[in-house]
Design a protein that fits this description.
Largest sheet: 5 strands, mixed
Number of domains: 1
Number of strands: 10
Oligomer: single chain
CATH topology: ADP-ribosylation fold
CATH architecture: Alpha-Beta Barrel
Strand order of the largest sheet: 1-10-6-2-5
Helix content: 10-25%
Order of helices and strands: EEHEHEEHEEEEE
Radius of gyration: 13 Å
Structural class: alpha+beta
């Protein structure tokens, strides 16, 4: 697990991310809330039933579509083998033909390999 007290490494470009690694995007305040709660459990877990994620090759598009203008954006690299009882499913829930990874359950903090500061 990434040290939750460590200052996140600065990420120059999303192109620097490993293409086949699993990532979840959060603001600094969301990350602090997740750490206080002991797991990554965003609002989407309640409203949609899963935690939105992206493969490294998808992060740039996810940032462009959903996080434009978010000044305090963090990229959490997750270990797919450390998700506990949560299931990782690749699916197209938006009907666009694009398949994204979704985690069906809270993501244990121990699954966070590294935290990068994008902005």
């Amino acid at each position: 697990m990434a040290d939750p007290t460590a200052i996140p490494a600065a990420l120059t470009s999303t192109a620097d991310l490993r293409a086949d690694a699993l990532f979840h995007l959060v603001t600094g305040s969301e990350w602090a809330r997740h750490q206080g709660g002991g797991s990554i459990a965003p609002d989407s877990l309640t409203s949609e039933g899963f935690v939105h994620c992206s493969w490294g090759r998808q992060v740039a598009g996810t940032v462009d579509r959903h996080f434009g203008g978010v000044p305090d954006l963090l990229v959490l690299e997750l270990d797919p083998g450390a998700l506990g009882g949560a299931e990782l499913v690749e699916e197209d829930t938006a009907g666009t033909g694009a398949v994204f990874p979704h985690v069906y359950g809270p993501v244990p903090l121990a699954a966070v390999r590294e935290v990068f500061r994008l902005r």
